[in-house]
Amino acid sequence: MSAELKVAFRLDTQLTEMMRLRVQSLQQRGQKRQEGERLLQPNEAVYRLDFAHQSLSFSHWSVRLTQPGHLTITGTSQLWTPDLTHLMTRQLLEPTGVFWRGQGGPNTPVQSYEADAHEFGERIAELAKVRKVMYFLFAFAEGCSPETVDCSITFTVDS
Fold first, then answer.
1. Starting at the edge strand that comes first in sequence, how are the strands of the sheet with 56-65 ordered?
2. Are 148 and 65 in contact, with CB atoms under 8 Å apart?
3. What's the confidence (pLDDT) of residue 2?
4. What is residue 153's predicted lDDT score, i.e. its pLDDT?
5. What distances in angstroms separate CA 134 from CA 38, 55, 62, 71, 144, one per listed residue?
6. How far apart are CA 67 and CA 101, in angstroms?
7. What are the φ and ψ backbone dihedral angles of 110, each rounded to 5 degrees?
8. Strand pairing report for 69-75 and 133-141
9. How far apart are CA 77 and CA 38, in angstroms?
10. Do the beta carbons of residue 61 and residue 112 sit within 8 Å?
11. Among 74, 76, 58, CA closest to 125
């Protein structure tokens, strides 16, 4: 029997702030971003997954939105080293994970584009084989915010 491992996405406040300062610095100096650079939008934050195990298989997503809203999760490739380089658009992974909850009250289930979310989860499991940390952009819309989101991903640990 394989063991399950639930890994929670954690807000990386330091990296989010660093990327916001990059945007602010460009604006203050009246400069443009580098060609292909991906700047952090006001409705986005950087989250991370820390992998204790490298040999994983994707099982399922656990996304809880405490109020109606829309969450888009975009992964970054293993080539992005945030302490050394700016995030470039070519380093963003596809597909993205798109999750939303409508106006139906607290028992309304969170919906997603299931095939894309599953493929995205499998891609994360593959990248976990070569990374101990992976970074993600969370884009919040339509009433969704970091305070209203609880998100994790469950893997089975391959033996």
1. 3-8, 149-157, 56-65
2. yes
3. 75
4. 97
5. 17, 15, 18, 18, 23
6. 7
7. -75, 135
8. antiparallel
9. 13
10. yes
11. 58
What would the pLDDT profile of 68-91 be if each residue is shown by its tens digit? 999 999 999 877 777 778 899 999
User: Cα(first)–Cα(last) distance of the chain, in Å?
Assistant: 10
Q: 51 phi and psi, to 5 degrees?
A: -100, 120
CA 102-104-108 angle, to 5 degrees, is 80
Q: Which residues pair with 154 in a beta bridge?
A: 6, 60
Residues 107/46, Cβ–Cβ less than 8 Å: no
Contacts of 52 (CB under 8 A, 6+ apart): 5
Measured distance CA(92)–CA(88) in Å, rounded: 7
Burial 10-28 (b: 16+ CB within 10 A, else e): eebeebbeebbebeeeeee
Report yes or no on whether pTM surpasses 0.70. yes
3-state secondary structure (DSSP) of residue 109: coil
